Amino acid sequence: MTTKHKPTRIDKFLQNYFPERAVRRERARAELQFLSRAGSYEGASKAISSFENYITALTDPDQSVEYERDILIERSRDYVRNKPIAGAILNRICDHAVGAQGLALQSTIDAAYLGMTPEQAQAWQRKTENEFRLFAETPECDHARTENFYEKTYSTLYSELEGGDCFSLLTSQERPGSPYNLKVQSIEAERVSNPDGQQNSSTMSFGIEKDATGVPQRVHISNQFPLSTMTSAAMSWVSRELFSSTGRRNVLHHLDQIRPGQSRGVPLLSPVSEKILNLSTLSQAELLASVLNSYYVVFIKGAKGDTGITRKNPTAGTTQQSNQKVKMGSGAVMTLPENVEVDFADPNRPSHLFAPFFEAIVAEIGSRVGVPKSLILMSFDRSYSASRGEVLLAWVYFLSRRLHMANSFCQPVYEAFLDEAVAKGHIAAPGYFSDPRIRKAYAGSPYAQWRGPSMPAIDVLKEAKAESVKINESKTKSRKQSASDVDGTDWDTSVYPRLTEENDKLKTMAENEDSGNTE
């Protein structure tokens, strides 16, 4: 590790008045120190030409994006609006991780700890799921009355990916016709900031206020977006405590925390921002070139001035001398003097090299954001094994995003709902408020009880046979797990009751036919 030296008077003078010379001086000192060491990593070398202009610095998680975060958000939102590849990436992640139907609750309580029989546990879970649907399937659960719980799950993930993070406020508001007062209010990233433009400090970073030990305590939310022209009201901030006095969450912060101590997130597209911009520019230029070359162009070569071109009207039979710009027209007959030649343009667009290069850059972008090229472009032109391999690898990432949403959004909202439902007597849960262990046993785990869209099948027959082998031959998979993986349904509450009903009907029909034949 490089040893820091105490700056001399010359160092301070150069830093204040000749910063470029100060940088060269510091670089030379570091190179000399490095050359005096043996057995070090080449990746830390400052003597290799590849690293000559590669300048880095050690910063804390917030300082590393202190001045760039707003620009990253601005560009990310513009990319999603105007760059097809950017929008495609976010659509694929949200469509597969959450889906149009959102994440559905499949209540899984700890029946053994609660002393329940399997039948009692199933009855409690069915009642709770029905009660939760009463809350979740209506826009009344939304503070703005525009989205239900499942739609809000999708839009929350999309907002987090596009803006780096977002917030959900768990508020209480009584409304006519709504059986529950719990309301979820979504706050986009730009509205959480330091009041009055304060600089970041050890206790305030990007609108997140922390205590002396670095634990977040509250968020500061502005009444409008920065530079908004939709209102004439002055910019003001309100603070919201992250936790109530009882420990209940008041504010949910949705972000993908990469470094410990990181206060805010950055957009998913930030590491590939330049590539998306350049690729979009290249695609637009190639498209424009193809359009221009699609016109049938004729070049007339001859002496300057009068070209001696005569234009004959085939219908009127008249001939007219023309020094004007010559245009090709239907049925037109042109005569040219001996010193005038005509060349026809040879359109050569689109270039045959464009598609492979475009797809190679998309693949590089996809490798960073976790979505394979074939899914971004919605093009499966390779073998079954290759396409399925891409889908399987992508599914690992999609499941991680789903679990992230289950942890940061679905489960906290469900637990807040359960608090109110038990307090109002809509759901019976003895000991719920007296013992946190009992409360957790009723609330269940976010790792087990949130069901989303299943993995798409490339060859349905092959994958159905594979499921059958796992269930019936190798005995490595249960029917309940298979039903959840294949189409996202629950075996106990959906598949088994329907199969039982159908089998009973078929048995009754067969008995009726037998009795009719006997008569």
**What's the main sheet like?**
4 strands, antiparallel
Binned strand content: 5-15%
How far is it from the N-terminal to the C-terminal residue, by CA? 97 Å
For the biggest β-sheet, the strand order reads: 4-5-6-7
SSE run: HHHHEHHHEEEEEEEHEEEEEHHHHEHHH
Shape: globular
Oligomer: single chain
Overall mean pLDDT stands at 84
Structural class: alpha+beta
Radius of gyration: 33 Å
Helix content: 40-55%
Taking pLDDT < 50 over at least 5 consecutive residues as the criterion, the unreliable ranges are none
Number of strand segments: 14
What is the tally of helical segments? 15
Give a structural overview.
It is built from 15 helices and 14 strands. 45% of the residues lie in helices and 11% in strands. The chain is globular, with a radius of gyration of 33 Å. A four-stranded antiparallel beta sheet has the order 4-5-6-7, with no helix packed on it. The protein has a three-stranded antiparallel beta sheet with strand order 3-2-8. A three-stranded antiparallel beta sheet has the order 11-10-12, with no helix packed on it. α1 packs across α2 and α4 packs across α7. The model has no long low-confidence stretch (mean pLDDT 84). The protein has 519 residues and is of the alpha+beta class.
